[in-house]
């Protein structure tokens, strides 16, 4: 059982929040600056963010000597809404556990070497490309283990190997670069003003029009549903939909999803017929029920209705829609 938070003040060595920094990253910097492990910092605060974020956020902010408001905005906080799990992060509400990399961080090793801090946007699953250095990484190049927040230092793996510069890799597709740029802009924008996103020209112009009216959480869920299948009519298990994937795997799903999703700018039956056997409809149905933002929920509901109306499976292949258990799917999708 978690201990009660101790009546202590700020740690002796203070660290200042940096522009766009991850809340969890700052806590790791603060703990190491004071010769503590991140686990010890949480124990001093009284527990773990997943146990009681409302209770702990004040203690953690006090220990790290940062404002409560800043840490609440930049850390991923779980909340309950009528028994349904949601998360708050960067001023937005997120309904799918796969949309955020809460305990499975990804990093740009070269940015860590150069700047010594973690970007908050790295905590967003759909953000997979550093504009300066290419694909993010979620595993150690030395030992192969997944990178974790409970590591000795920002730039050091649990195996004690210091992150090095990225190995030469294949060029990132322009669509994936454009998507990651859009995610960064949208995540930084006001949650109530999806239309006021900078960067409508250039690479972001490569994206379908419908994406620009949605929040990151909803857009990612739709792109994920569109790109999850690598083969037509591929069988998809519930477990595979919630498994946290590597940045490279997510990039492949995003590329497929956006290419297939171009037809959603025209929700006509002939256009949707081309998605026969490709789209993972359960993800769309869930989003139509669970999306927080009205625009997100409306678009998902319209898409769901258009898919049912076109009845494209029966028209093109005679196949019946796949059967599944909505309650089981929803429980697993919430993590």
Describe the structure.
This protein is mainly alpha-helical and 335 residues long. Among the domains are: 23-75, no CATH class; 174-333, no CATH class. Helices cover 41% and strands 5% of the residues. The protein has 14 helices and 5 strands. The strands form 2 sheets. The chain has a 3-stranded antiparallel sheet with strand order 1-2-3. α7 (216-227) crosses α9 and α7 (216-227) runs antiparallel to α11 (281-290). The model is unreliable at 1-7, 192-201 and 312-333 (pLDDT under 50).
Relevant terms:
two-stranded antiparallel ribbon, disordered N terminus, mainly alpha, 14 helices
Give the gist of this structure.
The chain is mainly alpha-helical and 335 residues long. The protein has 14 helices and 5 strands.
Helix/strand order, N-terminal first: HHHHEEEHEEHHHHHHHHH
Q: Helices and strands: which structural class?
A: mainly alpha
Based on CA inertia axes, which overall geometry fits? globular
- DSSP strand tally: 5
Strand order of the largest sheet: 1-2-3
What share of residues is helical?
40-55%
